[in-house]
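Why do we care about 3D structure at all? Because function follows from shape, and shape follows, mostly, from sequence. That is the central idea of this module. The next example makes it concrete: a single protein chain, its amino acid sequence, and then its structure expressed as C-alpha cells.
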Amino acid sequence: MNSLAQAPILIGLILLLLSLRPTLSISRLPTEQQLGWRILLGLVFAFIVGYLGYLYMLSDHRATKLEIVVALVFCGGGGFVFIITRMSEKTIHLLVDQANRHLHQAHHDPLTRLPNRIVFYKKLSQIIQDNHIFCCLILDLNDFKKINDTHGHECGDKVLISVAERIRSCLPENAVVARLGGDELGVLLLGSFTSHGQVFVEQLHQLIGQPINYEQHIIHVGVSIGIAEYPRHGSNRKHLLNHADIAMYQAKRNRKVYCLYETHFSTTSQNVSD
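And the structure:
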C-alpha cells in the first residue's frame, strides 16, 4: 500500500521540480506580473517541502486508502503546475519577443536598421540635460535623387545601406547615428569639433567616398555635413538642429565636405529665403 501512495507523490514531486526552471525564467522577465510569478515560485518551493514531508510521514506507517487518494491529488497538483508553467513560459516569451520586435521597429529605420528620428531627438535632449560638450552633425548625400532617377530606387536603397554600414564602422564610442528621413542622417558626437569631430568627419568622408558596386554599375556618392557644437551654437535642441541644418546647406552650396556653423550663416540663409 505504501508504494501505491509513494509512487504518485514521487511523480508529482518530479513534475514540481521540473516546473522550477520555467517559473524562474518567467519571474525574471520585466513584465507587470513579475511579482505574481515570483510568489508562485515561492509556492512551488513550499509544495516541494510539503511533498517531501508527506513522503516522510508515509514511511512511518502503512498507508490507508485516504492517504492513497491524497497522494493521487498531490500527483495531479504537480502535473497541473508543470503544464501551466511550461505553457505559460512559451506564451509569455513569445509575447515579450513580439513586444521587443515592435519596440525595435518603432525606434529603428527598417531599411538601414539605424535608430530613427525619435531616438535621435530623445538622445539629443538627454545629452543637453547632461550638459556635455558635443557636436550635432547633419549629413545629406549629394545628388541622391539623381542616383534614384538614373539607376532606380533599389540602387538608392543599396547606397543608403552601404553608407549606414560605413558610418557605423567608424562611429566612436558613445556616439549616436540615426536616419532622420530620406537621404538625411544625424550623428551626435561627444566632445568639441576640434578635439573629436574633425578627425571623425574626415574619416567619414573617405569611407563614404569609396565606390559602391551595384549590379554592373559603380556608384560614387558624396556627402555634405553641417556641424553645430553645443553649447557654442545653441543651447536647446531646436537651435542646434536648425544651425546644423543651415551649416549643411552652406557646405552643399559651396561644394564643401563639411561646414561648422557660424553666426553669419543664418543671415545668409535668411537672405536666400527672402
